[in-house]
Amino acid sequence: MTRACGVLLHPTALPGPPPCGSLGAAAREWIELLAREGVGVWQLLPLAPTDSTGSPYSSPSGSALNPWLIDVDDLIADGLLLEGDRPALVQVGDAGRLDPAAAGRRAAAVGVALRRRWSAQPAERRQAFERWSQGQRGWLVDHCRFMVLRRLQDGRPWWEWPGSLAQRQPRALRALAGSQAPALLEEALLQWQLQVQWDRLRQLAHRCGVRLVGDLPFYVAHDSADVWSHRGLFSLGLDGSLELQSGVPPDYFSATGQLWGTPVYRWSRHWLGGFGWWLDRLERQLELFDLLRLDHFRALEAYWAVPGGDTTAENGRWKPSPGRPLLALLRRRCRRRGLLLPDGRLPLIAEDLGVITPPVEALRDRFALPGMKILQFAFDGNDDNPYLPANYRGSRWVVYTGTHDNATSQGWWHSLDDGARHRVAQAVGGEVRAPAWQLLELALASSAELAVVPLQDLLELGDEARFNTPGTIEGNWSWRLGRSVNSLAGALQGYGAMASRFGRGAGGAGG
Fold this sequence. Notes:
By secondary structure, the chain is an alpha/beta fold.
């Protein structure tokens, strides 16, 4: 197994003009820089459209790509748009922060421009679009319907739509196809060109020897195309309300637990359908990425089910999940599709943070999935702390200094008390002068097969660059790199040199 190293950076944070990073030139420069400095893995967050807070973990469409990421320069270079279209697509603002409202406006304007130029496109391009659309019908049609209907219904959730639309009556859907044909085409064209731009990036990454790691939330949003179009697979009442909702039980950190508000799965229906929806969902993501982090992995063994009307997670109960047969079927499908890793493993990373039971560990280990370690969690003073590198058993781990949900390592260091700082100093073997880089060195020296660092830590940024603070809704998901990709060469060169000292080079995890 190749020991590898990577960087966590979401493309919305890539530099460029307002309002959002894209899948264009800066993303290509980023991949080439990683490869040049011997960093073999780029980890991203979910590429799906976000919710109203900007979170990609609560998406209105789990298989679609985020239209904020569409690159206008590439559309013009490819002849999908003309230079004269550019002024209508320009958004003003702060290039150092993502602006969700402006990003939404630009995406909508790009969709309109693509549709207006569509009739002038050559026949071969129109045929290519039709072929792609047919291949994606399992999710594309309902995604387009959902996004158009949500706009027509002023953003109301689908269970508050008129009954004929909420219940997907065929006559109502046919009427929609006729009256909203231009808007439906705009959504489809956006998704097609996002796929084209992403495929180019992935091909470039493979040529450069850089592997792409994606991220998949375990649950899907209640107000989503997925639930609207497959409501029988979720724990919903006849009116679309939640019968059972997701969360985690009370613990040391929260006396009332965490309530997530997404519907849990009706696993009996998934069994009857041969897990087809889940397998299609996972295969879609594995066609986008080389490895996939499965968030809240423990819910594949058992999940916390809370009554739908509750306002805390206290009254939930554990219910079993069919993770073993699902993963076995996924492995079989991946073998047929050529999606397994070279050593025959599933290309999944199990997010197994928090209190994990032996049955969850057994499920993870049965399928030889790497788990996760976060170094910021390692210094509570307990010698048996599972996040301390000395306590890792074997190499089947992905170790992070921190993740998108944590403070930056610089911010974390400044929040520590004297006792914790002393323990960090003991672990790094001397005075802590550069906490982010010294924590990174611990990760690289560990037995974990893959070490990943957020870009903010490489740049020694404080919490002004924090990406997300769980439990809050203001100011998240908006950080952008306010400098060119080429200006990162020094930090990446230092990272690559340090990684090579610990036997970690390009080539990626699983190679």
